[in-house]
Amino acid sequence: MKQLMKLIKPLTGLMILVAFTGLTACGEKQPAAQQAAQSAEQPATQKAEKEVIVWKLAQTWGSGFPIFGDAVITMADLVKELSDGEMEIRIDSANKHKAAFGILDMVNAGQYEMGHSASYYWKGKNPSTMFFSTMPFGMIAPEQYAWFYYGGGMELMKKVYDKHGVYSFPGGNTGNQMGGWFRKEINTLDDLKGLKMRIPGFAGEVLSKLGVVVTNIAPGELYTALDRGTIDALEWVGPSLDLNMGFQKIAPYYYTGWHEPATELQFMVNKEKFDALPAHLQKVLTISMQYAAYDMYARSYHESAVNWASIEKDYPEVKIRTFSPEIISAMKQANQELLAEHAQSDPAFKEILESQTAYMKMARKWTEISDYAYLKDNIE
Ligand code: CA
Q1: What separation in Å is there between the alpha carbon of 234 and the centre of ligand 1?
Q2: What is the spatial distance between Cα 101 and Cα 117, in angstroms, rounded to a whole number?
Q3: How far is ligand 1, taken at its centre, from the CA of residue 237, in Å?
Q4: Three-class secondary structure of residue 144 per DSSP
Q5: pLDDT, mean of residues 256-267
Q6: What digits encode the pLDDT tens for the residues 47-57?
């Protein structure tokens, strides 16, 4: 910590341009005069030249959205504290910018310096982005974090997002997600045919191949879509977030997961804006994002565990199910076929697929002899 504080000590004499662009369009912003007042509290030696860098972040989530939104607040608070007030990040939720799935475009265009979303939402623009959220039958969170930071994942993510004018960073992991909420029990492959389901990422393509009518819907509209019958089923996250959304009241069958074993959210930073930051603030921002991401992983686990522990008492209407071996096997086969198809026509996709496949094969051996070996004899 001492070293870190030394690193982020304000640079005296450095003139920093304040990014006030577009501030008037955002009602939450502090006026420039207030910023000046804050600067005036700085020690006399820095008083004259120190200005606050104010950035804006757009998130996919609605205002006050738990866990995901909290991760963004954690990051922004940390940036302000570690930079000793030199940098601030203002957060706009989907209620404000009205573009839950427009985050990548807005950060690329510089309309926002930063964004918080999920990489697989951009599969329509670039299928390779899906690998940086999670993949069906893919790595679990510890394996995937190891891949990101030590197995070449960050480099591959940088390569993919270079084309979109942003840097992408892990933005918080949900851990293993539940397979979703269904109005009717799914017993056979026939039950999937014609089923209207909200499910993003590569899992959506897999289910589409099995006859499901797949759609993606912004988080704020999920309950209404399910309630009105626009969709018959949906997956969202898991007990950490799902039960508060009330899905169990209208679709009581809750399936275990196969499709999102380690969903990583995403911080995005406009490349030009990041490159123009002084080195110590780049470091502050990077550390704050990584801390917030890992903190969200721990928080997600906690919230899921707490909700799950009381599920029978608090949510007696929930019926827990697991897809049959026949359905899981068909999903696996569809997954393999689709991966092979994409890889054949898209060299970038192939490169990342090969990296993840090889890494998972290696890391899974360790998972098996460590966590799995331990757990299989210790589940009561
Ligand atoms: Ca999900």
Answers
A1: 9
A2: 8
A3: 5
A4: helix
A5: 98
A6: 556 799 999 99
